[in-house]
Specification:
Shape: globular
CATH superfamily of the largest domain: Bordetella uptake gene, domain 1
Length: 318
């Protein structure tokens, strides 16, 4: 009789837990990059808006290293209960770059929505004797391999933007890899490197302060979100275009109502004019997807092109 009562009490406790509305405790939003870059910026913005919309604290946790793989692995193997969320870019890049992953980008995650999309900004150290994109290309051609390019890590958006630039412009940089956009930009500021393809949130404060020189953005024409900087085609390099995005993911197996709840909360936050203004100030546009399925379709559509870009770059991490 005692065992029966204990069993019934346990069932009642489980039923009570299941009946509790989601979310009923703080959430963790994980990002695979250190503070100072676009990954960190979009994560903190998303955390603020989700906190407002969900009525629970959303705590940011930076887990940098291995091109985001540490964070990806952590979330992939977290309980699928909606309390651990990932902010990341397109994981096809990691699959193309790393020989062995401890997670499956296609099977271990449920896409929720993109947060924001933006171009990279082509920057140089103020001491480099170039004033525009044409002069940078001419200088690089005259000095092959002698310009050090500060990159945010293998297969990061800045790395791939610079690799594509090399192919289109017919130049060659020496790539120096850092653990994120913040450290890469600090290297440019110090003069240890001369070129930096950077996400706008990482460098625009330094550009506005005149501490580094922005030559162009990695899209054909100027973007309203990055005022005063010409597009690559306008600056003398037609045929060059590269953009990046960050979006939210959940561990596979998360119940659909939770996925939909987080999607609705993030989309509502991104619709606010002040949030869009914050993104625009950092050179990015809010790009929420109509549904988690639409985000998944976007990921699938982009994958072949991005994997080819990594293969063409010759980059590989064993």
């Amino acid at each position: 009789m005692t065992r029966v009562l204990a069993f019934l009490a346990a069932l009642a406790l489980c039923a009570s837990a299941i009946a509790q509305p989601y979310p009923n405790k703080p959430l963790k939003l994980v990002v695979g990059y250190p503070p100072g870059g676009s990954g960190d910026f979009t994560t903190r913005l998303a955390a603020d808006e989700l906190t407002k919309e969900l009525g629970q604290a959303v705590v940011v946790e930076n887990k940098p290293g291995a091109g985001g793989n540490i964070a990806h692995d952590y979330v992939a193997h977290s309980p699928p209960d909606g309390y651990t969320v990932l902010n990341a870019g397109h994981m096809a890049l990691n699959r193309a770059l790393y020989k062995n992953l401890s997670y499956d980008p296609d099977k271990d995650f449920i896409p929720i929505t993109r947060i924001a999309t933006g171009p990279t900004v082509i920057c140089v150290n103020n001491d480099l004797p170039v004033k525009n994109l044409r002069e940078l290309i001419a200088y690089a051609k005259a000095n092959p391999g002698k310009l050090f390019n500060a990159s945010a890590g293998y297969a990061s958006a800045p790395h791939l933007a610079s690799v594509l630039f090399e192919a289109v412009a017919g130049v060659k940089f020496t790539h120096i890899q850092f653990k994120g956009g913040g450290p890469a930009t600090q290297s440019l500021l110090a003069g240890d490197t001369q070129v930096n393809f950077a996400t706008a949130p990482t460098v625009m404060g330094f550009v506005r302060a005149g501490r580094i020189r922005a030559l162009a953005v990695s899209i054909p024409h100027a973007s309203p979100a990055v005022p005063g900087i010409p597009g690559a085609e306008d600056a003398g390099l037609p045929g060059y275009e590269y953009t990046f995005w960050f979006g939210l993911y959940l561990p596979a197996g998360t119940p659909p109502p939770i996925v939909e709840r987080l999607h609705a909360a993030m989309v509502k936050g991104l619709a606010k004019p002040d949030v869009q203004a914050k993104l625009a100030l950092q050179g990015m546009d809010a790009t929420p997807d109509a549904s988690p399925a639409a985000f998944a379709a976007h990921i699938k559509r982009e994958a072949p092109q991005l994997e080819k870009l990594v293969r063409d770059s010759g980059a590989k991490v064993e």
